[in-house]
Amino acid sequence: MKKILFSSIAAFAVIISGCSTKSTSVSSDTSVDSNRGSNGRDNWDIDSRISQLNDTLNKVYFDFDKFNIRPDMQNVINNNANIFNTEVSGVNITVEGNCDEWGTDEYNQALGLKRAKAVKEALVAQGVNSDRISIKSYGETNPVCTEKTKACDAQNRRAEFKLSK
């Protein structure tokens, strides 16, 4: 009986010592920022900047049935390349070629691709890494204007930029 009593007391002592009070310190800053990733606030900043730039980057416009960069559009290429090389240097760029409604679907698809490729080559000439740039053609399927005017058609002959991580 003494052995059972001694074993019970020993077990009780072990349990009691395991439950001793410990001082636990908790940081007073208990806020959680769900936008912070491994890069902290920088991750949110780059997402915000990409979104802002996607809404404000200048477009490159083309003449009817052409895919060469017009002299008046070279400044757009230079400004966008500067942004791509400095502000968002690690971000992927998609150049989207677009056309007006004149021509067959197949022709406009090919022309949109040529426009996107011409813009990519111009960006690369300004120092943007070609591995960051992909090209895409929407042909005539992505108009920004649908009026039957020359001014409207001119708005649809363009290359646009989309940034992504």
TrEMBL record:
<keyword id="KW-0564">Palmitate</keyword>
<keyword id="KW-0132">Cell division</keyword>
<dbReference type="InterPro" id="IPR006664">
    <property type="entry name" value="OMP_bac"/>
</dbReference>
<feature type="signal peptide">
    <location>
        <begin position="1"/>
        <end position="22"/>
    </location>
</feature>
<feature type="compositionally biased region" description="Low complexity">
    <location>
        <begin position="23"/>
        <end position="34"/>
    </location>
</feature>
<keyword id="KW-0998">Cell outer membrane</keyword>
<dbReference type="InterPro" id="IPR050330">
    <property type="entry name" value="Bact_OuterMem_StrucFunc"/>
</dbReference>
<feature type="domain" description="OmpA-like">
    <location>
        <begin position="49"/>
        <end position="165"/>
    </location>
</feature>
<dbReference type="InterPro" id="IPR006665">
    <property type="entry name" value="OmpA-like"/>
</dbReference>
<feature type="region of interest" description="Disordered">
    <location>
        <begin position="23"/>
        <end position="43"/>
    </location>
</feature>
<dbReference type="Pfam" id="PF00691">
    <property type="entry name" value="OmpA"/>
</dbReference>
<keyword id="KW-0472">Membrane</keyword>
<dbReference type="InterPro" id="IPR036737">
    <property type="entry name" value="OmpA-like_sf"/>
</dbReference>
<comment type="similarity">
    <text>Belongs to the Pal lipoprotein family.</text>
</comment>
<dbReference type="InterPro" id="IPR039001">
    <property type="entry name" value="Pal"/>
</dbReference>
<keyword id="KW-0131">Cell cycle</keyword>
<protein>
    <recommendedName>
        <fullName>Peptidoglycan-associated lipoprotein</fullName>
    </recommendedName>
</protein>
<dbReference type="InterPro" id="IPR014169">
    <property type="entry name" value="Pal_lipo_C"/>
</dbReference>
<keyword id="KW-0732">Signal</keyword>
<keyword id="KW-0449">Lipoprotein</keyword>
